[in-house]
Write a structure and sequence with these properties.
- The chain has about 700 residues and is an alpha+beta fold.
- It contains 16 helices and 25 strands.
- It has a 5-stranded antiparallel sheet, with helices on one face.
- Helix 2 runs antiparallel to helix 15 and helix 3 packs antiparallel against helix 14.
- The longest helix has about 60 residues.
- The protein starts with a helix and ends with a helix.
- The relative contact order is 0.14.
- The model has no long low-confidence stretch (mean pLDDT about 95).
Length: about 700
């Protein structure tokens, strides 16, 4: 070997050792730097004409493991998803109060029943009546407060999603720009590890927001894609857009660089998935179940109050807006009910027995006069001739007594959709409502739907994670029956028929079921339908859509007439054994109060809401189930959070074991490269000495 070749070999070794020492020094200096990935010098033999002449440097390489990085990013996404869900479900649970404390929301219902039990012992006590009404008001106001706070949590979540999408766009833009820097450095053989480390940290942050697929690019850098493969970051970044309305599920679209198309993308994990799940699934489950619980609790209190009698009896019983016309409302009733006219002292003046099964109205036990749904109001007015009258306006039935007399009703066996005659029309409600809250309309397939033909309800079909599938516009048909309306909603051409179906149950509840394999969900975009002139829309009457459901629990208030004068509460009972001229309503009668006290123990049909399907149980039992469901949901989210954190920690530890700096290993490398440097330097010195000897010989 020539002296020149020897010097070249030694010089390359010296340079390689120097470069390796710099890399090792960087590793040691950054041992505690977050996001730093250790580096190693790539070396290979330098061969010239088949003869080894030292070592060649091929650049600096970050020591990474693509599989471990992917596992770490996936675990981080799951962790942030459940962190978000657990945080807000814990906040939602806290709104109901401490189960061991006196102010626990569900304890307020027990206080109502206890107050009416006490009032039954002394029904004439204004104080006891006021206390009972006060407990009812507390329960309703607290339900409204909780409902408002849950909706506000949804607004907070919405703000965080928007912020998350904006941050994700910033990260994608920075990742794309770093791709350019990394590629440029790779082309000229420069050290790009600094840019790669920054890019890795940005990817970690992005994975916390949304799950992505990361793959290396030829020439350096990474491609970032969505779950279904949409390119989000490469040479340029895509633009993410958050799409949401108050009434439809949220979803995110990506507009690839250079394209005008916005494509909905699937996000299955990350903070944004958790937040969207809260917005569209978890929080709606809570306020929907709260609405169902409060609605049925109110329903049972009203059922008892409608079957009770006040002393002195009121001259007017004004019903609520049923959303129906009178013939349709009367149709489908069965059993009997009794309306009594009594004087100020409770003495019976006239009884009007309504037999819905046989469609007759009789006065004072006389022969029954036949009626049809269309002639019901006229028949009732005929029976009330001389002592009162009945009117129907705006979906509400009103009974009036004249001449200083009053009204009392016994529900008897009358029933439609689980409610008696007075209860169905809300003639003597303890609790009034400011909108529709009971979606058991009682409508049957053969009943007239009553909606003005030509009205349109716009629906959106979405995947379970909120991505839109199809928007449909359903026009109210001229065909008159509910079956015709349901068929229009289920049309394959203009309705939801390709993705599921609406159905009407025996109680007149309209609901949608998605068809597999898509299992689509339906939401209401807007609704300009109306039942009659200025009447309820389809979504209002049947409780379709998020806007209807989220306001439900806050639509109740104590009957203003009773709130102003608790002595008008119906705490007694109409005596059906009394003959005309005898006392039928007595002061001091507490039978109605006892019925109110026992309202929580009456079996009730609860519709599917939240985490519970359709069940029949008492209101008190449902309160326990509901309270438990809220607690279990928060606990389950906390468990998932803990599990995902453990997985994320393990994935990060394994990744760090490859990417992190090991001081012992680096010190060994430092010693090795120092010795290699010394060896190369000694070779140069030896070559120099040999050259001097040769010169001296000449």
């Amino acid at each position: 070997m020539s002296l020149t070749a020897t010097l070249r070999t030694a010089s390359s070794g010296l340079n390689a050792a120097q470069a390796a020492l710099r890399v090792t020094s960087d590793n040691i200096a950054n041992v505690n730097t977050p996001g730093y990935v250790r580096k190693a010098l790539n070396q290979q033999p330098l061969v010239v004409n088949g003869v080894g002449q030292g070592v060649a440097i091929n650049g600096v390489q970050r020591i990474t493991d693509q599989y471990l990085q992917s596992a770490s990013l996936s675990a981080a996404s799951d962790k942030e998803r459940w962190n978000a869900v657990a945080e807000y479900l814990d906040n939602a649970q806290s709104l109901f109060g401490d189960p061991s404390a006196d102010g626990f929301f569900f304890n307020r219902l027990d206080k109502i029943f206890g107050a009416f039990t006490t009032a039954a012992d002394d029904p004439s006590s204004t104080l006891l009546r006021s206390q009972a009404l006060g407990n009812v008001e507390d329960f309703l106001s607290e339900a409204g407060r909780i409902n408002d706070q849950i909706v506000s949590l949804g607004d907070t979540v919405e703000t965080r999603i928007n912020a998350g999408v904006n941050r994700a766009n910033d990260l994608l833009d920075q990742i794309s720009k770093l791709n350019t820097d990394i590629k440029r450095a790779s082309l000229v053989g420069a050290d790009s590890s600094g840019s790669e480390n920054i890019q890795s940290q940005l990817l970690d942050e992005l994975a916390g927001l949304m799950n992505v697929r990361v793959s290396p690019r030829n020439g350096g850098g990474v491609d970032v894609r969505s779950v279904e493969g949409v390119l989000l970051a490469g040479d340029e970044a895509a633009k993410l857009t958050y799409n949401s309305t108050d009434s439809t599920p949220a979803y995110i679209t990506a507009q690839p660089a250079g394209s005008s198309n916005q494509q909905p993308i699937q996000i299955t994990s990350g903070e944004m998935r958790g937040l969207m799940e809260l917005r569209d699934v978890e929080l709606p489950k809570i306020y929907d179940q709260l609405g169902e619980f409060v609605s049925r609790a109110v329903d049972q209190l009203n059922a008892a109050h409608n079957d009770a009698a006040a002393y002195p009896p009121p001259a007017t019983l004004a019903g609520r807006d049923t959303g129906l016309d009178l013939p349709t409302a009367v149709s489908g009733f069965s059993g009997t009910s009794t309306v009594a006219i009594v004087n100020a002292q409770g003495v019976l003046q006239r009884t009007i027995a309504i037999d819905f099964t046989n469609a007759t109205i009789s006065v004072n036990g006389g022969a029954g006069a036949a009626f049809t749904p269309a002639t019901f109001l006229a028949g009732l007015n005929t029976a009330l001739t001389g002592v009162g009258n009945a009117t129907f306006s705006g979906g509400a039935l009103t009974l009036n007594a004249t001449g200083g007399a009053g009204l009392a009703i016994d529900e008897g066996t009358s029933q439609k959709a689980g409610r008696g005659f007075s209860h169905f029309f809300g003639l003597n409600d303890l609790i009034k409502q400011t909108g529709f809250t009971n979606y058991a309309t009682g409508l049957q397939p053969t009943d007239a739907h009553g909606f003005t033909p030509g009205g349109v309800i716009n629906l959106r079909l979405s995947t379970p994670d909120g991505r839109p599938v199809r928007d449909v516009s359903v026009t109210i048909p001229a065909a008159p029956t509910m079956a015709d309306l349901v068929n229009s909603l289920n049309s394959n051409a203009n309705g939801v028929g390709l993705y599921g179906s609406f159905s009407l149950d025996p109680n007149g509840v309209l609901s949608f079921t998605g068809a597999p394999p898509l299992d689509a969900q339906v939401s209401v975009i807007n609704d300009n339908t109306a039942r009659g002139v200025g009447g309820a829309s389809v979504s209002q009457l049947f409780g379709l859509g998020a806007l209807e459901r989220q306001a439900r629990a806050g639509r109740f208030q104590v009957n203003p007439t009773l709130d102003a004068n608790p002595n008008k509460m119906a705490l007694g009972k109409l005596d059906l054994t009394a003959a005309v001229g005898q006392v039928a309503v007595r002061p001091g009668d507490g039978q109605g109060a006892l019925a109110l006290a026992n309202a929580g123990e009456v079996a009730t049909l609860f519709q599917k809401a939240g985490s519970l399907g359709q069940v029949t149980m008492t209101v008190s039992r449902y309160a326990s189930e509901f309270g438990g469901a809220v607690g279990r949901g928060a606990a389950a989210a906390e468990t998932r959070k803990s599990s995902s954190e453990a997985v994320a920690n393990e994935a990060n530890n394994r990744r760090q074991s490859v990417e992190g700096v090991n001081l012992d290993e680096e010190l060994v490398n430092l010693t090795t490269y120092q010795q290699a440097f010394n060896a190369s330097a000694r070779m140069i010195q030896a070559t120099n000495e040999l050259f001097d000897v040769l010169v001296n010989m000449l």
